[in-house]
């Protein structure tokens, strides 16, 4: 038995026993949902530390990450919802954690969503032309993305004399490889019977994606043509965003918004393992998102313009200067350009293989003159001036 398989089995056994213990001692003051969450994340980190074979860990990490996220959400959901607790059993637990639709490529789904799909399969799940069309569409887009990832960087951007074009090419290659996995996971989710995405606002762009793809993990157009980095963070991995918002940010928010943001950053970083280059990217992303959010909020208040990080509705009544006015277009275009620069800067250090050191990452950023960090500093000063 490979070590990766052993890690998964031990995690399943320990989480199941902890959940059963939480049901037995539910009257005591111990918050087993917190205990299980901390244990699951620490288990993931410990496995990475003790595993000497980096190749074996690379194959097991994704499976363990999804399992840990499911364990955390299951602990909170069974505590909050008696119906989910009643539906919990050894079979439903194993079926949920080891669900073939998302145990390898993801995405995370809640226990409630899994049970809904199981119920639907037994009642009125229908296999029709649209079902196959959505699977095929996801697979075609997925294959197109991996071809784009491998070919575009090598043919158009590699060795370009202007460093920013080369950086954009490397970042674009990384993003398209992410789209490849995301659309592949969408195909497996649709094939299993999952539809839509939970917690999506009515009439949102994601609804249109659902009609085409059946299930939505990522929205590439919102990343490649970004309105703001905040928007990019949300649509990069929608289920992951929902997980962090519901089971980390909202849980910690009573202790303060800054504390909630910091803990969310830490949990997100730890879930991705001891990847220091990713930690640096997430920290920088959080810093710039914070600066951008506050600047645009203040500019929207000063000019009464539709320039917030989130797009205003067509019939916005909060602002006098609508999104089609010259001032709004100018401000939004400036932040669009800054966002593209930041995506190139942040993605530039992520295109390397696993094991890429933080020192090498900082050298790459140094070659781009630490542009995003300087922009964040200037933005912070500008925010306090206005």
From TrEMBL:
It is found in: Membrane. Belongs to the membrane-bound acyltransferase family. Porcupine subfamily. This is Protein-serine O-palmitoleoyltransferase porcupine. Its EC number is 2.3.1.250. It is a multi-pass membrane protein. The chain crosses the membrane at residues 6-25, 32-50, 56-76, 88-111, 131-149, 247-268, 274-291, 327-350, 370-385. It holds the Pfam family MBOAT. It catalyses: [Wnt protein]-L-serine + (9Z)-hexadecenoyl-CoA = [Wnt protein]-O-(9Z)-hexadecenoyl-L-serine + CoA. GO terms for molecular function: palmitoleoyltransferase activity; Wnt-protein binding. GO terms for biological process: lipid modification; Wnt protein secretion; Wnt signaling pathway. It comes from Culex pipiens. Keywords: Acyltransferase, Membrane, Transferase, Transmembrane, Transmembrane helix, Wnt signaling pathway. One of its GO terms (cellular component) is endoplasmic reticulum.
């Amino acid at each position: 038995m490979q070590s990766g398989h052993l890690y998964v089995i031990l995690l399943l056994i320990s989480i199941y026993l902890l959940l059963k213990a939480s049901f037995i001692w539910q009257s005591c003051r111990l918050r087993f949902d917190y205990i299980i969450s901390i244990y699951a994340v620490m288990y993931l980190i410990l496995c990475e530390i003790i595993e000497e074979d980096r190749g074996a860990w690379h194959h097991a990490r994704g499976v363990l990450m999804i399992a840990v996220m499911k364990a955390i959400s299951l602990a909170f959901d069974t505590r909050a919802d008696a119906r989910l607790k009643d539906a919990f059993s050894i079979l439903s637990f194993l079926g949920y954690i080891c669900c073939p639709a998302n145990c390898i490529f993801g995405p995370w789904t809640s226990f409630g969503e899994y049970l809904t799909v199981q119920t639907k399969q037994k009642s009125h799940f229908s296999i029709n032309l649209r079902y196959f069309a959505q699977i095929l569409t996801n697979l075609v887009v997925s294959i197109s993305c991996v071809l784009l990832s491998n070919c575009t960087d090598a043919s158009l951007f590699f060795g370009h004399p202007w460093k920013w074009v080369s950086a954009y090419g490397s970042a674009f290659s990384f993003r398209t490889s992410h789209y490849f996995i995301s659309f592949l996971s969408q195909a497996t989710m649709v094939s299993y019977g999952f539809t839509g995405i939970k917690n999506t606002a009515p009439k949102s762009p994601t609804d249109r994606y659902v009609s085409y793809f059946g299930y939505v993990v990522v929205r590439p157009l919102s990343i490649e043509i970004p309105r703001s980095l905040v928007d990019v963070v949300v649509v990069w991995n929608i289920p992951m965003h929902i997980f962090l918002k519901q089971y980390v940010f909202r849980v910690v928010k009573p202790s303060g918004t800054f504390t909630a943001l910091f803990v969310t950053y830490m949990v997100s970083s730890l879930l991705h393992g001891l990847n220091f280059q990713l930690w640096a990217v997430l920290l920088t992303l959080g810093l710039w998102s914070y600066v951008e959010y506050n600047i645009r909020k203040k500019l929207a208040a000063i000019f009464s313009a539709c320039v917030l990080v989130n797009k205003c509705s067509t019939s916005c009544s909060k602002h006098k200067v609508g999104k089609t006015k010259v001032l709004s277009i100018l401000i939004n275009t400036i932040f669009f350009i800054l966002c593209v620069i930041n995506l190139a800067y942040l993605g530039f250090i992520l295109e390397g293989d696993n094991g890429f050191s933080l020192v090498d990452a900082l050298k790459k950023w140094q070659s781009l003159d630490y542009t995003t960090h300087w922009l964040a500093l200037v933005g912070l000063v500008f925010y306090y001036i206005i």
